[in-house]
Amino acid sequence: MKNYNVEGVIARALYGQVLLCRTETGSHTAVKRMSLSSTGTRPSMDDEAEDEYALVRAEIEAEKNVNLALKRLRHRNIVAMEDAFEVDGFQHFVFEYCPNGELFDALKHTKNSRFSEVRALHYFRQIVSGVLHLHKVGYAHRDLSLENVLLDKDNVCKICDFGLAVPIANVASEYVGKLNYMAPEVHAGGPYDPAQVDVWSLGMMLFIMISGVPLVDIPSRLDRRFEILHDHGVEAIVQMWEMEHLFSSSILDLLQCMLLVNPTKRATLAQVRAYLDAMDGPIVPPPPPPSHRGKPKKAKKSKEAKKKEPKEPGRWRTMFHRWF
Predict the structure, then answer these.
(1) Which residues lie closer than 8 Å to 183 by C-beta, 6 or more apart?
(2) DSSP labels for 86-155?
(3) 181, β-bridge pairs
(4) Backbone conformation region of residue 78, classed left if phi is above 0, alpha if psi is from -120 to 50, else beta
(5) What segments bear the compositional bias annotation Basic residues (predicted)?
């Protein structure tokens, strides 16, 4: 750490801390400093401690390999690792510094703790671009969240923290991630496609940015909101929470396709990107895969008929009030 002057702690990490450092040239950088063993020095270790040491080192080495791959193929929406070195039993990853902090904090400090759809899409397009690049490099993130997206000095989104990333071609089975963003197949246990897990997490991130609240607390039928999502889709919850004014129909269609509980029916990331690109055109495209959003709309009634007809609460809202 001779070349880096520590000025403070930015955040805690699994095996250490992320430090704010100043380089010899006067510029700031973020250094992720991780202990290779919390049990002491290697010569005095017993078999159990030795196994723990090997596990920690393997996990840190795996994260290092992901960052090295991303360093070779850089992307403006992924935090760049500038250096890596080991000193006195600590591994150090040196990253570009993002002074505007987490996207989650930016959301939290806005009025009503939510972004307009336009602003949310501005950030979301950048995040999707970064994740798509990560997938092309050969890895899935598995811990995508607003907390793992940083904002640089120009408020450009930078995806960070690849400690849970795995090769995208492999079938995964580990229980990882944050509950609000976790795909149901991860929570359920058993094998899953890590690429489709990332799509689910991205859908949750978009919903939270626009609504200001998590869609579910637990991605299982233990959570009644998840049960409604599973049986009736995102639009049902949006109507129950009287948030229709926050979401355009095109975004609801996109969310519906990203948050399908069955991962084999869920939109792929390439389809999500294509949908976002098409939204920039004059015509809003249909959602990526087929979407079942309830019964066909009834024919419009005349103004006189509407006046005579008493206004009743929506079907989803009635169900919501009955359950909660």
Answers:
(1) 177, 192, 196, 197, 200, 201, 219, 263
(2) EETTEEEEEEE--TT-BHHHHHHTSGGG---HHHHHHHHHHHHHHHHHHHHHTEE-S---GGGEEE-TT-
(3) none
(4) beta
(5) 292-305
Q: Are 242 and 316 in contact (CB under 8 A)?
A: no
- 143 among known catalytic residues: yes
* Cα–Cα distance for residue pair 258/233, rounded to 1 Å: 11
Dist CA 119 CA 210 (whole Å): 9
Q: What is the pLDDT of residues 165-181, one digit of tens each?
A: 999 999 999 999 999 99
Q: 149, 141, 162: which is closest to 103 by C-alpha?
A: 149
Q: If you count them, how many residues does the chain have?
A: 324
CA end-to-end span of the chain: 55
- Domains of the chain are 4-96 (3.30.200.20), 101-280 (1.10.510.10)
CA nearest 273: which of 195, 183, 193, 216? Answer: 195
Task: Write the pLDDT tens digit of every residue in 226-270.
Answer: 999 999 999 999 999 999 999 999 999 999 999 999 999 999 999
Name the active-site residue from 46, 83, 88, 143: 143
What's the token pair of residue 212? 């200001």
Nearest to 234 by CA among 291, 187, 182, 183: 291
Q: What residues contact residue 300 under an 8 Å CB cut-off, 6+ apart?
A: none
C-alpha to C-alpha distance for 240 and 254, rounded to whole angstroms: 19
- pTM of the predicted structure, to 2 decimals: 0.84
Question: What are the Cα distances from residue 89, in Å, to 4, 18, 36, 42, 47?
Answer: 17, 16, 6, 10, 19
Task: Tell me the sheet residues that pair with 90.
Answer: 35, 87
